[in-house]
Specification:
Helix content: 40-55%
Number of domains: 1
CATH superfamily: Ribosomal protein L17
CATH class: Alpha Beta
Shape: globular
Strand content: 15-25%
CATH architecture: Alpha-Beta Complex
Strand order of the largest sheet: 1-3-2
Structural class: alpha+beta
Order of helices and strands: HEHHHEE
Largest sheet: 3 strands, antiparallel
Length: about 120
């Protein structure tokens, strides 16, 4: 049995996976919509929704938590605290949407568009 395995490996090493997720989170927050593979989008959804939930408190502690997750002196931290979190103030969860977007031509990987719900 497999217990306590909550994340997908995505065929990457641990440090590479963390860097990939961090960069995808930054791109999603700044552009509010990105196109990626379906597996990466599903992994990204869990992380991005937690970041918005942390930002709802809008305190120094939440700012520091977001900075540790996204990197210090990040524009994305301000965008979460000032734009995204107030937008979803009344919403209890489900801030992102995944739309399947066909298959990639080269390797036939399932593609998806992940975006914040407006």
């Amino acid at each position: 049995m497999i217990h306590k395995r909550n994340n997908k490996k995505l065929s990457l090493t641990c440090t590479h996976r963390k860097a990939l997720i961090r960069n995808m989170c930054k791109s999603l927050i700044s552009h509010e919509q990105i196109k990626t593979t379906l597996a990466k989008a599903k992994t990204l959804r869990r992380i991005a929704e937690k970041l918005v939930t942390i930002g709802k408190k809008n305190s120094l502690c939440s700012r520091r938590k977001l900075s540790s997750k996204l990197g210090s002196n990040s524009e994305e931290v301000n965008k979460i605290l000032l734009t995204l979190s107030p937008r979803y103030k009344e919403r209890k969860g489900g801030y992102t949407r995944i739309i399947k977007a066909g298959y990639r031509k080269g390797d036939c990987a399932a593609m998806a568009i992940i975006q914040f719900i407006t």
